[in-house]
Design goal:
By secondary structure, this protein is an alpha+beta fold. The protein contains seven helices and six strands. Helix content is about 50%, strand content about 15%. The strands form two sheets. The chain has a four-stranded antiparallel beta sheet with strand order 4-5-3-6, covered by helices on one side.
Length: about 190
């Protein structure tokens, strides 16, 4: 919708509120919307007074309606459109990250793939996603993490339509594991690795 990254983040916060908040039971209702969004949007609008916040919210809502994210009327309730739901799925996908455990279960999760050159863009996207997800590149097409992630890896591979080229497996023994354990200890200091 907007090239302004702040506006884009505000839109994401409003969409996330619409799904996680109770406001969507009958649509997002304007009188309560600003109050309900005060906490998630405070970081963006902390320098604005109440009247400026109301104007800014109306501007963003109008823009969201104009770009097809919301349907309905501001005064009577707004509903998320399919376009908004698609954006929410993308937000959810973008925020996927490995979930560290309190104590490591001594299992390594390994992802390997052999994606053809014809699918290079998908391979590059998968590689970048595995990096941002929290995996460590063990070899060229081999990634590793000490934490359970089978469902997430399946979702990531399916998202890039490369699931038939990706293999996920778990292992208990790994030669030369000490440097990896040290690396993950540094990255996840709240996890007990010993």
């Amino acid at each position: 919708m907007s090239r302004n990254p702040t506006t884009s983040k505000i839109i994401d916060e409003i969409l996330l509120f619409g799904v996680t908040g109770t406001a969507l039971a009958g649509g997002l209702l304007a009188p309560n919307l600003l109050i309900a969004l005060d906490k998630p949007l405070r970081k963006f609008w902390k320098h604005l007074d109440q009247r400026e916040k109301e104007r800014e919210l109306q501007r963003v809502i109008y823009g969201m309606k104009a770009h097809g994210y919301l349907a309905g009327e501001y005064e009577h309730g707004l509903q998320l459109t399919q376009k908004a739901k698609d954006r929410l799925l993308q937000i959810e996908f973008d925020s996927l990250a490995v979930e560290p455990q309190n104590a490591w279960d001594k299992q390594w999760r390994i992802v390997i793939y052999d994606i053809p050159e014809a699918r290079k863009a998908a391979r590059n996207a998968l590689t970048e996603k595995l990096r941002t997800y929290g995996c460590f590149q063990l070899q060229k097409s081999t990634w590793i993490t000490p934490f359970p992630c089978r469902k997430d890896i399946a979702a990531i591979a399916a998202n890039y339509d490369v699931d038939s080229y990706v293999t996920y497996f778990e292992a208990t023994n790994l030669d030369n594991a000490a440097p990896l354990i040290k690396r993950f200890q540094k990255k996840y200091p709240h996890t007990k690795f010993s």
